Amino acid sequence: MLSRTSAARASRPCSHGLLRPIASQPPRAGLQQLRRGAASFVPTQQRRSAITQKGFPSNPAVRASLSADAKSSNANRAPGTRYASTTPPAETNANAERKDAIYDLIDQINENEMQMVELMDDLDLLDDHAEALGIDRPELDHAFSQTIGHRDAQTLEERVRAARQQFGDTLPEDYLNETEIELYTQLYGEPIIEQEHTELQIEDEKDLNTLYREDADGEWQEVEVEESALEDEVPVVYDMEMGPIEDETAAMQRTREIAEQLGGDVMLEQFEEDTIHDDAPRLHPRTVEGKFATDPSTIFLPKDTVTGPISIILSDYSNKHISEVARRTFGGSRLPHSTYTPLPRAQSPQIPIPLSATQRHMTEMEANAYIAALYPGLYASTLSVLTEVRKRLGPEWIRGLMSREDGPHFLDASAGGAGVLAWREVLRAEWDLMVPDHPEGSPYPVGKSTVVTGSESLQLRASAMLENTSFLPRLPDYVHVREKPTLNDSRAPPKRKQYDVIIAPHSLLGLEEEYMRKEHVQNLWNLLNPNGGVLILLEKGHQKGFEAVAGAREMLLKRHIASPGSTHYENLTESPHEDTHIQKETGMIVAPCTNHGKCPMYHMDGHAKGRKDFCHFEQRYIRPQFMQRIVGAKDRNHEDVRFSYVAVQRGVDLRETESIVQGPEATEAAFAGYEDLDGMPAEEAQVDESSPASQDGTSSDAQNFHSLSLPRIVYPPIKRRGHIIFDSCTPAGNIERWTVPRSFSRRAYKDARKARWGDLWALGAKTRIHRNLRLGDKFGEGRRERMERRAATREELNEAEQEEPGEEETGSPSWPELAVPPRKKGQTIPSWKKNADKKSLRQATKQYSSSNFGSEELS
């Protein structure tokens, strides 16, 4: 996903007092103050855990040293107290003060070392300069305690208990001093002192290198062996270019011996060729260019602009009340009538979202349910589509808008402000690429944003989260307003508001009549900037949502967007005295289609019953905590929002400016593949000579490459062993099934394994066939009609079975007497023969019944 907005913009001016001041968090748990008298440094448990998470004790030696210092000198000490020293009380007060001063100095040294560790960790110098911390030196507390006495009685007891825990009943010689031995004896009894046997170990090591020989008397006599002069030299084990010599297994050794007997060699190079080296790119550049995904692929809603302000707004209301209203409004606990699209087996009705940003009346709790249940899905789907549009139009488009004096003009027609948040996230990410060294939290050009909110309660909440934003109660009507002077009014037409980007999610399904949808799309098209404005229409990812978007796409292509061979359209509503042939405008479809013909999945206007195939896509996002409470989820915190969309641009046609080729020629070129376009290694593309990729007829089209000339994967790829299957919508306007096997190309096969639903595929395929689509029919039967028909058929069969016994009593033909062969006395029939006889009986009965039933029907 695009990177998150800086934290400096988290606090924004609050409108109408909705956002309460956020209480400042307590300071981070750090080091405790120096103690009175002892001034010992004691890191708190929170600080140690924070340092551990921060990662500076990655060096094991540093971690062990720090933990040992903390345990030996500072563990479990009550604050503000000083225990009595273990030295005899006969010492003078002056000596006691000197000892305290020494231990104070040790504490100061430990504190300085901890500060050095933190500074070196912040500068990433800890691993390289760990020796500067004095890790290998003995503990200062232990070193001085042997001469001036321990710090206190607790420190003495801890050292004795640590020795007991480490060595058990035995103690190494001179490990504890006399005072420590005395306390050890009082606690555990007399210890067993273990002496070191260094001399014996040296003799044993010497004996290991001695050679003996038995003489004539049967005694062993030492033999003198001269050491080789080359023994100290390091032998050359292997050649650096050839690599180390690997030990052969028994099977490989036997294989090599057989190969030598037959006069051949063992071929191992083929296994090395199948591997892709680490220095090779992970994905082909054209594969990366055609990806339909955010970075990362799962969207994390930013806390400072989305989830944080919403949580503060909802904190003034009861969570239970919000959940009840949301579930009652959106159809249940899973919110099936929200932006979430249930699976087909759920048989959920395909109705528009009950709450709309443009509706005039909305209660306070309904507004809370809107921002809590709809904002996350609207933000994720809008951000996904805007990211795809930015990829297809290139960085020049969005940077040109940002470089203008007044910035880009954005209209959120039906998302209630969620579209503005997603659009500003795209602008911020682009600004980070344009000015990578800008200070954190510095402003970036956001332009002017407008949001349509019909109700005051929703406008109040949206204004609390958005800065520099205008709010409209409804869209202006530019359909029924004259565009030029007329006979009745010769004045110039009034100026119209124009926007560079318009996003209108979930605004078509709420309009039941087809003519109302066309007027709405026409009005949005008139609001677009004629010099490159982009319109995005988005609906839920089910059959009716797709049909609404596809109908709007067909209307725009038929009336407004000009294409080669279709530059005018006939307007039958004009008067006979005016020209009915109206010239179309320059424009293009940006996404998801890479063709400007009729949609292959939309073959008729209106709703088609029994439709199974339709174009839609998916985006995953992490549900915020307030949405988790509404849904009642305990384990899974992500959700996949499915949607159908279309993005069009007015006034600019890249097919003309950049010579983009679409149609059958582009399909043939894409089927051959653009793998070698960027100078990829030729040995990586192992293409069969008979495959279309080896033909020269379409290789010349590689020079005119553009991502809008590629087929788009419209269903999840089918990954099989050794090959990948794509269902793609080609630039020719057909749905085809492409197969990419391993034998086609190693690079293409590797990238195909990583391909996802919605990607544009550029590396070609080996085979392709036409995919059969189940598009339904206007007068066909839907799911309900089909279920009713099956139920009626089932009832007729049950009634026929109940009438059969009465017919047999009146005069039905008798069944043949097919008896099982009798078994003789003492005869044992195998189970296979017994089952075979029963099977023959069943088959004969079935055959007789079927023939008898057919004769009755003929009669």
TrEMBL record:
Mitochondrial ribosome (mitoribosome) assembly factor. Binds at the interface of the head and body domains of the mitochondrial small ribosomal subunit (mt-SSU), occluding the mRNA channel and preventing compaction of the head domain towards the body. Probable inactive methyltransferase: retains the characteristic folding and ability to bind S-adenosyl-L-methionine, but it probably lost its methyltransferase activity. One of its GO terms (cellular component) is mitochondrial small ribosomal subunit. Residues 1-96, 683-705, 783-859 are annotated as: Disordered. This is 37S ribosomal protein Rsm22. The keyword Transmembrane does not apply. One of its GO terms (molecular function) is structural constituent of ribosome. Residues 783-797 have a biased composition (Basic and acidic residues). InterPro entries: Mt_RNA_Methyltransferase (IPR052571), Ribosomal_Rsm22-like (IPR015324). Residues 798-810 have a biased composition (Acidic residues). Its main location: mitochondrion. Keywords: Iron, Iron-sulfur, Metal-binding, Mitochondrion, Ribonucleoprotein, Ribosomal protein, Transit peptide. It holds the Pfam family Rsm22.
